[in-house]
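yo, PX domain-containing protein is done. seq:
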Amino acid sequence: MMQDNEKLHNGTIQRKLKYERMISRSLGANPDDLKDPIKISIPRYVLCGQGKDAHFEFEVKITVLDETWTVFRRYSRFREMHKTLKLKYTELAALEFPPKKLFGNKDERVVAERRSRLEKYLRDFFSMMLQSATSPLHINKVGLTLSKHTICEFSPFFKKGVFDYSSHGTG
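structure:
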């Protein structure tokens, strides 16, 4: 009995927090924002490390309604996220993921092309997840409660401080 009351109480608190977020959001975000609720870009990449440990990290800038944050990620983290999430959301297998390169992955032209393709992948990824009935990001489920928190809960890839080894951190 006590456990049921506790669950009921927690459920009420969660609904109240969701409602409060919607109310506070309604001042800065409006339903028109739901047409394109997530904006994502990879504005640049940086070379990190030296010698054998040298690698590129891509700056991923995410804007969800009225919240913006940035994370830096290596290509291997993108690939890891794609492989993990497509097991759970099989429709993601249809997305074109930039292939792994055995040679030339430090060449400026190759990295510039990879940046462009990763950016397209992320945009297509979110477009698909916002429309997928099985996704917790489905726009009819989350609406104006979509937030940085929702995205980070969906995948730690988008969370600041996770996978951050470089001096660039996450701005």
